[in-house]
Amino acid sequence: MKKKVSFLSPTFNSEAWIVRMLDSIPKEDAHEIVICDDGSTDKTLALLKNYQKHCPKLRILENRKNAGAGHAYNRCLDEATGDYVAIIDSDDYYLPAIREVLAQVDGRYDIYYYNMVTRLGKILEKKSTDDPYRKSGQFKIIRRSFIGDSRFGTQGPVPGDVHFHKLLIDKKPACKYTGIVAYWYNYPREGSETHIYRNRKK
Fold this sequence. Notes:
This protein is α/β, with parallel strands linked by helices.
């Protein structure tokens, strides 16, 4: 049986991308769309509120001050009510093939993996033969009850999504690898979380 999916996204100063990202979410497959605006100072919040007028499934969480990506991710997780959660970064978007992935979310697995394509056209694959701890990005749709108290890291040398992914894999999830390219990843991009983290390491 097809399950309810909550689409989650933190956003900060994403006026250039936020509508494109929202448009890419198949509304007929969305139980809800939960966006946490992390104290944006541009038009992001206004665009979200305007979008909400014709998209009742959109729920907007607001941080008055910027608290960081990890906090925004975690607020979304705390507010989600679907059987599964799909996390999408605000500057990325789903490809039409995401519908094929969602059609497979039937409750048999804890994580449903798909593949991504970067802005340069490189395919990033998630395969059963991979080290499960590698490739911690937004390759997956996750059973919400399986997540439990696992959350994104909010401080320290390890990126928040890597911390979250490790906590999930430590629980030995049952996984399905769909092999479907369903996500456009805005990488490399100056100013992205990955870009900031890699520059910090240098």
